[in-house]
Structure formats: C-alpha cells, structure tokens
Amino acid sequence: MFSLAQQNFYYYYFVTHIFTTILVDSTVVVPEKFQFTKWLVDYHISLNNDFLLYERPAWLWWFVLVECVGQLPAFFWFAYKLRHIWALRKASSDDKTSKMQLNASNKQLLFWLRVYGWNAGLTTLFCLYTVWTRGYYPEGEFLPMSVEDKLKLMAVYCPYLIIPLRLCFL
C-alpha cells in the first residue's frame, strides 16, 4: 500500500473531486434546466477559454457520463475505504484478523484505484490532446488559441491526468 501521506492526499483528492464532478463536470450531461452551477461553468469557460465545456462534443458527453455514473460513486467508496484502512491499521498492531482484513482491503482498494487511474488518466489525456490540436477561443469568431492560452487550459486539466495516472503505479 502507499504511504500514509499519499493516502491522506488521495483521500482529500477524492473528497474534493466529488464537488468538482457534481458542480462542474456534470453540467456536460445534465440538461441546462437542472443545472444550478451554470454560472460557475460559464465563468470557468470565460476565464480559461475552455472550448471543450463550451462545445460539449459527443465524446466528452460519454466521458462525463462514465465519470458521473462510475467514478462519482467510486470517489465516495475510495474515501470510505481509505478511512476503513486507517481504522484497521490502528487495530492491526495486536489483532491477527485485523491484519488479514487490512491486507485484503489494501489489495481490493489498489485494484480499483488502478482501474480509476487508467480510466481518468486516458480520458484526460485525450482532452489534453484535443486542446493542443484543436484549441480555439469559444467566444467571438472561434479563432485558434495561442500556445500560451492552450498551455493555460492544459494546466487546468493536467492534475486530472497526473494524479489519477500515479495510482496505476502503486
């Protein structure tokens, strides 16, 4: 299993990612009349020139649907499982059964973290590729983005590549 510091980092990553998924990403698949954070997404689009959230291509709709249906429940489960492992670690110093449960929980969690890591990493990599190859300004005449603005938008997406992909190598 990864270190306690890494576990803490990923615990807070998953907890905060719950809010990112609900408040921002879900607007790609939720009909506009049910969106209560459209203003937040519009602000993000204008601040970062995020043409993907502006355009909402069909492939992005499917990526976000997988995120909302598969990853969002997994974020809750990952956070729960990490806390469970912490509790088992405290109890396992004396108890042989707790040590066995801790080992089984670690293996189960690592498997699903890797599945999530590959899924999130590869979908984000595709988004980054699209930003680099097709980036345009979503307002006005849809002019091609400057390299500087592409890099700025890619910097917003990069943590969602690096952090999940890191899980694949635990």
Automatic annotation (TrEMBL):
Membrane topology type: Multi-pass membrane protein
Subcellular location: Endoplasmic reticulum membrane
Keywords: Endoplasmic reticulum, Membrane, Transmembrane, Transmembrane helix
Coiled coil: none
Gene Ontology CC annotations of this record: endoplasmic reticulum membrane
Major location category of this protein: endoplasmic reticulum
Family statement: Belongs to the TMEM97/sigma-2 receptor family.
UniProt protein name: Efficient mitochondria targeting-associated protein 19
